[in-house]
Structures are given as structure tokens and as C-alpha cells.
């Protein structure tokens, strides 16, 4: 299957990436959609507060869990990147938004070849859009066979550490 990357504006970086067989993955703060990667943590915060009340004698451990969780949330805005691809090369809206108002270009990739070269840090999957912001809670963290469930649920396309 072929997939496509609409580009416009950063021609030198794009050409250099093609030449070096690399790609650029923007973090969520660099994307044009302010809702990309948006997660509500109200339920999680409430659950942590309840756990603190129940297990007050283990408050150091709960504080460590809370800090670790916050580090993960903060990481998505600074150290993780998104590399979005489309299954279509002829989407007018994508040409308008991501290819400099139809003045850019579209790069064709062979998805099988991309997956064959996949770095273990990279995750590829279809996005799942939702009409509402996802609210993260313990049940989503603890009760999943698929470790990428949270990423998929929040419409991230591929996550990789920046600079790779």
C-alpha cells in the first residue's frame, strides 16, 4: 500500500530528509491543530486523590506514580513527534492545509518498506478521530493488552523520539 505526505514550505528540509532516508516528526506544539494530542486528565487526578485518601501510608509511592504520569504527559509536548501520512494523494483539503495551498508537493511512500525499516521506538497505526477530548484514567492505563491504545485513542499517528 502506498501512503502520502503532503509538504509545502520546508523544501530544503524535505529534500534533505529524502536524500538521507530520514523524516521529521513534529511535536504537538508545532502542529497546526491545537487539539492534536489533547488529553483531559480530570478523571486521573480525581482517582489519584482518592488513592491518596485510601493509601495515605503509601503517599511516597503515590507521589512517585503521580510524578511519573505527569512526566509522560509533559513528554508528548516536547520529546515525542508525529509523522502524519495519508492514504490518499488527491485530497483537496490536505493539499490546501499541508501543501502550501496547492503550491507544495506530495511524497509517495511504500508503507510496507517503511514498516520493514521500522525503529522499535516508532509506532504506525490508523488514526481514530473523536468528537470529544479523551479523558485519561487508570482503567485505560492498567487494563490494556495493546500498549499503544492511549496513543491511538488520542489520534496520534506515529510517535518517535525527536531527532531520529
Report on this structure.
40% of the residues lie in helices and 15% in strands. It is α+β, with helices and mostly antiparallel strands and 164 residues long. The longest helix is centred in the middle third of the chain and has 20 residues, at 59-78. It starts with a strand and ends with a strand.
Can you list the strand order of the major beta sheet?
A: 3-7-5
String of helices and strands? EHEHHEHEHEEHHE
Percent helix, as a range, is 40-55%
The helix count comes to: 7
As residue ranges, the low-confidence spans are 147-164
Instruction: Write down the overall geometry.
Output: elongated
Overall mean pLDDT score? 75
The strand count comes to: 7
Radius of gyration: 19 Å
Q: Alpha-carbon distance between the termini?
A: 24 Å
Please give the largest β-sheet: 3 strands, antiparallel
What fraction of the residues are assigned to beta strands by DSSP? 15-25%
Structural class: alpha+beta
Amino acid at each position: 500500500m502506498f501512503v502520502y505526505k503532503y509538504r509545502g514550505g520546508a523544501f530544503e528540509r524535505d529534500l534533505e530528509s529524502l536524500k538521507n532516508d530520514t523524516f521529521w516528526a513534529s511535536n504537538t506544539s508545532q502542529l497546526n491543530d491545537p487539539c492534536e494530542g489533547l488529553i483531559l486528565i480530570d478523571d486521573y487526578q480525581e482517582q489519584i486523590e482518592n488513592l491518596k485518601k485510601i493509601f495515605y501510608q503509601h503517599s511516597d509511592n503515590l507521589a512517585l506514580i503521580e510524578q511519573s504520569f505527569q512526566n509522560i504527559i509533559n513528554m508528548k509536548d516536547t520529546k515525542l513527534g508525529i509523522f502524519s501520512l495519508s492514504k490518499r494523494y488527491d485530497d483537496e483539503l490536505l493539499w490546501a492545509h499541508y501543501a502550501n495551498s496547492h503550491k507544495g508537493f506530495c511524497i509517495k511512500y511504500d508503507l510496507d518498506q517503511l514498516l520493514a525499516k521500522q525503529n522499535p521506538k516508532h509506532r504506525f497505526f490508523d488514526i481514530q478521530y473523536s468528537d470529544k477530548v479523551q479523558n485519561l484514567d487508570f482503567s485505560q492505563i492498567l487494563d490494556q493488552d495493546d500498549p499503544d491504545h492511549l496513543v491511538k485513542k488520542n489520534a496520534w499517528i506515529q510517535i518517535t523520539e525527536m531527532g531520529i
